[in-house]
Design a protein that fits this description.
It is a single chain. The chain is of the alpha/beta class and 295 residues long. The protein has two domains: 79 residues, no CATH class; 189 residues, Cobalt-precorrin-4 Transmethylase, domain 1 (3-Layer(aba) Sandwich). The protein is 46% helix and 19% strand. It is built from nine helices and nine strands. The strands form two sheets. Strands 1-9-8-2-5-3-4 form a seven-stranded mixed sheet, sandwiched between helices. A hairpin with a 2-residue loop joins strand 8 and strand 9. Helix 2 packs across helix 4, helix 3 packs across helix 4 and helix 8 packs across helix 9. The radius of gyration is 19 Å and the shape is globular.
Length: 295
């Protein structure tokens, strides 16, 4: 069974503290608080720390000393990005700078009148783009596990207001989720999945990632391959303190005669792109649980 259960770590008190700090003291003060918070997480979040340590030792092949430092940096970068998620749409828009790669081609796809499947990962700041795509955001539907969404929804909206994109929650009513996804795509809207987490052990696709066996949720790749719509792999990454890049990669349409199932062809492409991003920004991989299948 996966160690991740559809909930992201972090209590409501912690969010309220950072929201208050950003609101009354500014972004730099919130960043500074991380120097106190990060050392706390190392011993008091043992499962997350263990997963981060394993990642740096076994996936990124760091020495013991380097891995110790990278665990701290890993937590710090994660905290920064959570702070940015709160700050960017709540009065700090002009503080951040954004680079868009292949944006014109991306807009051509969005303007095609067809539904679009977008697949990202818990890597970098995947949700940030929803705040800056203008009128396109009104047609964005983010598929998110309900437990993860409800945990932070009220606290974030208290400061930033309601998001300009829509959320399709994943819960026990699987058919309702599928109908919502299909309805949005049939209506020419854009549905965004995270292709790197699953809850149902029986609905996964196996694939190596960074040289180690892992499992990926079958749903995004099955839906994308069956509906024959444009598929875009989307990553938003923090480049420095106040700069992000939005990167778009366009999947080739899977072929029925390729000798491999269509969903696996898409997964091949997704994993290839994800590995590129992980090699460029290894500290922005934010799955703090045992993602890989231990050999």
């Amino acid at each position: 069974m996966p160690e991740w259960k559809g909930k992201t770590r972090g209590g409501s008190l912690g969010y309220r503290i950072f929201i208050g700090l950003i609101k009354h003291c500014g972004l730099k003060a919130a960043y500074a608080l991380l120097f106190i918070v990060v050392p706390y997480f190392v011993p008091f979040a043992p499962k997350s720390t263990k997963a981060s340590w394993w990642y740096w030792r076994n996936i990124q092949h760091k020495s013991r000393l380097a891995a110790m430092w990278m665990v701290l940096k890993h937590y710090y970068r994660f905290g920064q990005i959570i702070i940015d998620k709160i700050a960017a749409p709540s009065g700090y828009e002009k503080k951040f700078k954004y680079d868009f790669n292949d944006y014109e081609r991306f807009l051509d796809i969005l303007n095609s009148g067809k539904g679009v499947v977008m697949i990202g990962a818990h890597f970098g700041h995947w949700a940030l783009g929803g705040q800056f795509f203008g009128d396109y955001s009104k047609k964005i539907n983010i598929v998110m596990f309900d437990a993860e969404y409800q945990k932070i929804k009220d606290q974030i909206e208290e400061l930033t207001g309601s998001p300009n994109y829509k959320v399709i929650p994943v819960n026990d009513d699987e058919m309702a989720t599928i109908f919502s996804i299909k309805g949005a795509l049939d209506n020419g809207e854009y549905v965004c999945f995270q292709g790197d987490r699953y809850v149902n052990e029986n609905k996964v696709l196996p694939h190596d990632l960074m040289g180690h066996p892992a499992k990926f949720p079958a749903g995004p790749f099955l839906i994308a391959s069956r509906m024959h719509l444009p598929v875009v792999f989307y990553f938003s990454e923090k480049e420095d303190t106040y700069r992000y890049s939005f990167n778009f990669f366009f999947a080739d349409e899977p072929k029925r005669s390729a000798g491999k199932k269509q969903e696996m062809q898409l997964l091949d492409q997704y994993v290839s792109v994800l590995e590129q991003r992980m090699k460029k920004h290894p500290e922005q991989w934010f799955n703090f649980y045992q993602f890989w299948q231990k050999q």
